[in-house]
Write a structure and sequence with these properties.
Layout lengths: L3 H11 L12 E4 L8 E5 L4 H10 L3 E4 L16 H12 L2 E4 L2 H4 L5 H9 L2 E8 L4 E9 H13 L13 E10 L14 E14 L3 H11 L7 E5 L8 E12 L1 H12 L5 E2 L7 E10 L4 H6 L4 E5 L3 H4 L7 E4 L2 H5 L1 H14 L6 E4 L11
Parallel strand pairs: 2-3, 2-15, 3-4, 12-13, 13-14
Antiparallel strand pairs: 1-4, 5-10, 6-8, 6-9, 7-8, 10-12, 11-14
The chain binds zinc ion (ZN).
């Protein structure tokens, strides 16, 4: 039986926690990481009804997109749904884990799921993340360049978009003088040594820095490993907010609305004036997406598909794009099934481990 922490480690490979927004509260919210579970229930939200479902199914962990605890709880007395849900989970010994804006902010997460539902191709991130990349440079004798490079790749270094094992190397000469008490790999104590070295550099996501530098040092032959860690100002090509993709065949507004309603199970679409021509490019963001409207307009998209737009925010379209609000739960609902599918890979290592999709309707909004 896997421990909760093993499930978390797997999910955090998919969506690194470092990518969550400052205001968010993703991660393990209730429960002990070392607890063993043989069943996981996946849901968009956690409510009392979802916890009751987990109890009935014997699931020891609920993985949800939205965190049940979002603001700090100063007391837990059961006066509202959040407190009662947390109490029910604690009472039943059920863990609650949320994978929220970190899953919004990876290109293969919520936005890719929405693009697939619409049949959009060539998705790119609408607002690529900043402050996520670093460069690691090291200097190593030619003989060890290959093993050092491979160790850095294996620890997660050298990813650029859909490419991996990206690095740059060139040769040069290093100098050093070994001081008292050292045992240099080459050269003699107290004498300047010249060594033909390879300079290796590669891009590393900041959340992988510790691992990459540690792996590099482990196989590097020098006692003191000369290396630079440089923070980059570059944006991340496959992390950030929202997505934009194109249809292979443009479609008219009526066909688009029909398709959107059926793909997302949306009872209605609230929108600004439809585009004059056909729709080729669509920008999207699952949850509250109004903050991305300027990026959606700049991307040249015909439609911005999102949710939670307020009355005055619709005016922001300015006739330059059509805002289409399909509802929050409708836009993101498909992510639960996607998480179940992802966890199937984790299941391979644990034959008696089950992943179940919640059948509870958590959406509090009804359309009449
Ligand atoms: Zn959401």
């Amino acid at each position: 039986m896997p421990r909760i922490q093993q499930i978390i480690d797997f999910l955090e490979q998919i969506a690194p926690p470092a990518l969550q927004e400052d205001y968010d509260n993703s991660g393990l919210l209730v429960g002990e990481p070392h607890a063993e579970v043989d069943k996981v229930l996946v849901s968009l939200d956690v409510t009392e009804a979802v916890v009751a479902e987990a109890v009935a199914l014997g699931a020891g962990l609920i993985v949800s997109h939205h965190p049940i605890v979002f603001r700090p709880l100063r007391r837990i007395t059961g006066r509202n749904e959040v407190e009662r849900t947390v109490m029910a989970a604690l009472r039943a010994g059920i863990g609650l884990y949320a994978i929220h804006t970190n899953l919004d902010n990876v290109a293969h997460g919520v936005n890719a799921m929405m693009c697939r539902k619409l049949g959009l191709e060539g998705m790119r991130v609408l607002r690529p993340a900043k402050g996520t990349l670093a460069k690691v440079v090291t200097f190593v004798p030619h003989s060890h360049a290959e093993v050092v490079r491979e160790a850095m790749f294996a620890a997660g270094g050298g990813h650029i978009g859909a490419y991996d094992q990206c690095s740059f190397s060139h040769g040069g000469e290093g100098t050093f003088r070994a001081g008292a008490g050292t045992t240099p790999y080459v050269g003699s104590l107290g004498e300047q040594h010249r060594e033909a070295e390879t300079r290796i550099e590669m891009v590393v996501e900041r959340w992988n820095l510790g691992r990459v530098v540690a792996s590099m040092k482990r196989v590097h032959p020098y006692e003191e490993v000369a290396h630079d860690v440089i923070m980059l100002d570059n944006t991340h090509p496959s992390a950030g907010s929202g997505g934009v993709g194109t249809f292979a065949e443009p479609m008219d507004w009526d066909a688009f609305v029909t398709m959107v309603k059926s793909a997302f199970g949306a009872p209605m679409v609230r929108h600004t004036a439809p585009p004059k021509g056909s729709i080729k490019t669509v920008a999207l963001c699952g949850g509250t997406g109004s903050f991305l409207l300027p990026d959606a307009i700049r991307s040249g998209a015909d439609v911005f598909l999102s949710s939670d737009f307020k009355y005055h925010e619709f005016f922001g379209a300015e006739g330059r794009i059509t805002i289409a609000d399909i509802g929050h739960a409708e836009a993101e609902g498909g992510i639960s099934q996607w998480l179940v599918d992802q966890l199937a890979e984790f299941q391979l290592g644990f034959p008696n481990f089950a992943v179940l999709l919640s059948k509870v309707r958590t959406n509090p909004i009804h359309v009449s």
